[in-house]
Structures are given as structure tokens and as C-alpha cells.
Amino acid sequence: MEAKSLKEAKLLKNGLLIDGTGNEVQHGVDVLIEGNKITAVGKNLSVPETYAANEVDIIELNGKTIMPGMTEAHLHLTWQDALYIQDIDFKPIEETMVTAILNAETLIKSGFTSAVSAAARGRVDIAIRDAINRGEFVGPRLLANGAEVSATGSFVDLQPNHVRVHGLAILADGEDAVRRTVRSLFKEGADLVKVNVSGESLSAHARGEMTLYTYKEVRAAVEEAHARGKRVYTHARSSDSVKICVEAGVDIIGHADFIDDEAFEMLVANKDRLFVVPGLNWLVSTLEHGAEYFGQEAIDATGYAEGLQIALKNMRRLYKAGVRVLPGGDYGFKWCPHGGYARDLEHFVKLVGMTPMDAIVSATKYGSQIMEMEDRIGTIEVGKLADILVVDGNPLDDISILQDHSKLNVILKDGEYIARTLEISHEAETARV
């Protein structure tokens, strides 16, 4: 039989397996990767006879952790070191594109091999997704978004009425305008659209407790998306905005901070079809570092300190009720920079009360579900695509280890090395299984 090429097979030996399913860890596990797929998981695996001895990369792990690549569920590639939303609006699109490409590389080298965009400037996400898929540069599996669909007077409507800027949002009021905008975004090639249903408390005129879109407007967006087999992602902090989203059939709800008991029950009743991405690191990082940029009085005025406690209480309730709560932290501002994505898992454990295993499941198995790729990624199982991390340490003992990029010894996407610091060896002769 003709031997396969060197790049097609890899054998990870003697690892601590966290397979992403939530099952107990297994020690001394080997994982065989052929091409872009996992073809065997077990103990004491050998090089298959279809390969010559030097045609399989063998990596001895000595007990290091093997786990699936993670999914960032609230990504903004086109946000970079912004201090104000206006910084995103006014940054030239050429510079925005350059930094977005770099952010895509940062994301995957942080162990996040998949991502769901929660809006972008122009067609940048779409162009980056397509270039990654063509193999032109390194980046995650990406569900691309377009500009945020938002109402007049919303928290992203920041220019005087006589000035209009084609920035991070498109203003659309009324059902017809929403439909037209959503249609135009899908025409451009977006995988999903983002709709701002509530406000955001950094904006005095449209705070997070406010609801800015009606049910009919949100439903119009959902109808247009679902008619095309696409989905709607919303910014929804207020309780009423969350209720509108659930009733309208929204697929992914960002934040959901201020839900009351009725909204909670609605989310639980629909837990099998929707996802909640709270964006906790935005709140945590703003409280930690926002005063350095805006002053403590301005940060106090946002109400984020109280808002964080409300959000944590509600995320605990949703988690315990089995709602799929995923990591994603609005990275891209100066005080919440790209690269720290795994902080959300630490927040899930230390602030929400998830077990470390459940936090990992939220980033891996649930990540594959929000990517609509559950049959292909998210767990270490035979037949799945080889999106795999090797971690120097056990994240079940210390979930924060996933934030240390130097501990990510191997990152594989689709069976190809994204990063590797461990040595490769080859068997002296062909082994038989």
C-alpha cells in the first residue's frame, strides 16, 4: 500500500484527556490524527501500518492536557484599542482591516479555533472569513457578521443629527427599514446579523436598562434571517428586550443581564434552541481599569458595579437551569484588549459558580453548537475534525492556565499546526496495529 505523506498523520502520546463532552478525564491517552480528522483515541496506540516509520509526527506529552479548541462566542475583530465607540467609527477602514487580520491570528493563537462575530465594520469579517478559508492567512473558523443594526437614538448613534457616519452601525427604524438592512447585510455575505435591542450604560442617552426596538422590528430581522437559513444575534441587556428576543425567535442573545423572573422562565423554556453570551469580561474589565481612562466618577455613573452583581446572579440561575451560557467578552477596547479571551472561563468558574469542566464544555461542546458544527468540532472523538489544544497543565485544577499562551504547547486547526513548542519524533520502523 502506498504510504501517506508526512504531513497527514500525527500521534499525540500519553496525555490527560478532557474530551469536551463533560465526561471524566482520562489519563495516559493517545490521539491519532490522519489528515484533518481524529481517527483513534485510546491507550498505547501505534503508528498504523499504512504509514512508513518516519511519516507520522509523534509528540510525547508526558501527561499534558489534550482538549478541544475553544470557541469565542462574542467576537469583534474590527475593534482594536478603542477608547470610545467613535474611535471604531472614525478609524480608516484600511487600518481597521490590518488590525482585524492581526486579531484573527491572536485569537487562534490564544486557543480559540472557532469564533462567532458579534458585528464588524463594513465587510471586513466577510473578507477575513473568506481569506482564512482560502488558506491565505491564519485564523479561526469564523461566522462573519456585518455592521450592527441599530435604532435612531441608540447607544451607537453618537453623532449630531446633521452628521452621519458609516461606522460600526447602520441605523434602521421600523419594520421595512430593518428588513431592508438585514437583506443588504446578507447580500454582502454575512453569516448572521447583529441587532441592538437594548441600550448600553456607557451612553447616557440610551442606557442598558432601556429597550430600543419593538417586537415587530426584531421579528422582521428574524424572519429575513431565517428565510435564508441564517441567524440573528442581539445585544439585549434589559428584561423587556430579552423577552422580545425570545418571543421573536432570536437565536443568540448577548448579555441578558437585567432579566426578571418572566424573562428567566422564557429563556429556560427555549434553552434547546438559543444561546446566551453574557460578555462578562466587559463588565469586569471596565470596573477594573475603566477609571484609568474615564475617572471613577464616570465609571460609577454607568452602574456597572451593581450591573455586574445582577448579571452574575442571573447567569448562575441560567447555568443551573441548563441554559447554554457561552464565553465571549467584547474584547477590543483599551481596557479589554484582544488576547484575553479565556478570562471569561475564569469568570464562569470564580464568579458564576460553574465547575471548571462545565466552563470548558461551554467553550468547546457548546461552542461547536453555536457554530452549527456539532458533528465536526467541539469534542475529541473519532471522526471529528482535529481542532485540538495541548496544554501544559490541568485547567481543571486552575482554569486561568488557559490565559497563559506559553502553556498552549500545541494548537491544531483542521489537523494543521497553528503553534507547536513540543518536539516531534518518528518511530524507527513501521509499527503495526
Strand content: 15-25%
Judged by helices, strands and strand pairing, the structural class is alpha/beta
User: What is the count of DSSP helices, taking H or I runs of 4+ residues?
Assistant: 13
Fraction of residues in helix: 25-40%
As for the CATH topology of the largest domain, it is: TIM Barrel
Residue stretches low in confidence (pLDDT < 50, at least 5 long) are 1-6, 429-433
Gyration radius over CA? 22 Å
The CATH homologous superfamily of the largest domain is named Metal-dependent hydrolases
Mean pLDDT: 94
Give the domain tally: 2
State the end-to-end CA separation.
15 Å
Order of helices and strands: EEEEEEHHEHEEEHEHEHEHEHHHHHHEEE
CATH C-level category of the largest domain: Alpha Beta
Q: How many strand segments?
A: 17
Shape: globular
Question: Architecture of the largest domain in CATH?
Answer: Alpha-Beta Barrel
Largest sheet: 8 strands, mixed
What does this structure look like?
The chain has two domains: 6-68 and 376-420, Urease, subunit C, domain 1; 70-341, Metal-dependent hydrolases (TIM Barrel, Alpha-Beta Barrel), CATH 3.20.20. Helices cover 32% and strands 21% of the residues. The chain has helices spanning 85-90, 93-108, 124-133, 175-187, 215-227, 239-248, 261-269, 280-294, 296-302, 304-320, 343-352, 356-363, 365-370, and strands at 9-17, 26-34, 37-42, 57-60, 65-68, 70-75, 112-117, 141-143, 148-150, 169-171, 192-196, 231-238, 252-258, 275-277, 388-391, 408-413, 416-420. Strands 1, 2, 3, 4, 5, 15, 16 and 17 form an eight-stranded mixed β-sheet that branches. Strand 16 and strand 17 (416-420) form a beta hairpin. The longest helix is centred in the C-terminal third of the chain and has 17 residues, at 304-320.
